[in-house]
């Protein structure tokens, strides 16, 4: 048996958390977008997507931004872990929801937290929460701050008025893998550890936390657990929940910690109370996570279909055959065009299989047989990687080109200076309802895009798939108004049209983007009324003063 290994002081390079994230867009500060990229995107929008000529705006410098003076200041015993620096507070004002990007681009940081706390230990976290509870200060826990549902920043408006002040609790100093149990293949990881830092530290043990959300480089474990993050695995371990063995959460009322167990049948699972809590109950400071070796064998292929429903039927059969592809994503022809692969002009399914034990040809060959039976075409054939294989994949293949385009933040970042209204609506639906639901969504988007913007495009992908249905992800893109307030209003109305249609089909307003504040209205419609009351009761026990991330999941208690 292997012994558990401790390595808190493992030598490594500077953590990802030391690199400043972009203030108004996706990526690090020095890579948001360059002049060539912006020019290329403008030309693409106008020539390929038929947008009217787009203006090119400049971001407001931070020195000219609106950042209010703090209304509170930390006590002397917390000065070492707290900052009131305007630029630092501005960086922790927003997540990555499109309206937040627009406001940040135009220098509006009016909801900026009064105080930014950077705890170094769990004792620091406890001290900050004690002060916040005593003074009724709203606390927003943050790791990467990449959430797109409006739950990452401090409360504003009527909710803000219930509190003496606001505080952003930046967890990125809690960034170590504390212990590795190689026998059980689990690791104890601090909540502020960013994705690349987790796997850099696990690499010494030949293990990885195989969870890769699109925000992987910019987000961390605590945020993943708090938002029930979805990774890039299309089947099986689609959400972070499946990888959580136990978790510790520091709450205003004390510490909430679950046991290390492979599984149990003793009542409702306490881990599940923490997963998806969105900072509304406490601060996730560490968790035992299930880890595994890197896969040694991979197979991948791109399959083309003449229609989305034929592609969907092939995917349904693949997932119900329990082939468990790591990647099984459908991208309609609008989506491939929006990402610069306009020459594809068919609906594309990207398949990928991986294994630590042996070759994966058999699984992908069976999946390709199913695709062919449903009218799919795989002209390049599958590509295999692993011992004894050489890759036959061209760097210009559609799989490789799509991977490059999909990982780039350029399309989303360029939307801001080019005044493009861009956003997403994602949910999950059973296979039997997908065709009617899909047609209803496209009709709703077409109507609202024409009404709000005069034109626009909406694309479809399956981000994850299950035996009983797909997770469907719609992206809309339209020419927006140059006025930022009007552009945000356009986004809100388009988003509302999509979410209202989702609820007409009795679905969820989110599959993996969390609830936040942007989806609260529809989340309240989704859940049973007495479930919402139960959540409020739990919050009343763990956070009696109601200071933890007010405005997400449940109503905020009035000041009393």
TrEMBL record:
One of its GO terms (molecular function) is FAD binding. The keyword Flavoprotein applies. The lineage of its organism: Archaea, Methanobacteriati, Methanobacteriota, Stenosarchaea group, Halobacteria. One of its GO terms (biological process) is lipid biosynthetic process. Residues 109-294 form the FAD-binding PCMH-type domain. Residues 1-20, 375-395 are annotated as: Disordered. It comes from Natronorubrum texcoconense. This is Alkyldihydroxyacetonephosphate synthase. Keywords: FAD, Flavoprotein. Belongs to the FAD-binding oxidoreductase/transferase type 4 family. InterPro entries: Alkyl-DHAP_Synthase, FAD-bd_oxidored_4_C, FAD-bd_PCMH, FAD-bd_PCMH-like_sf, FAD-bd_PCMH_sub2, FAD-linked_Oxase-like_C, Oxid_FAD_bind_N. It comes from the Archaea. The keyword Chloroplast does not apply. Residues 1-11 have a biased composition (Basic and acidic residues).
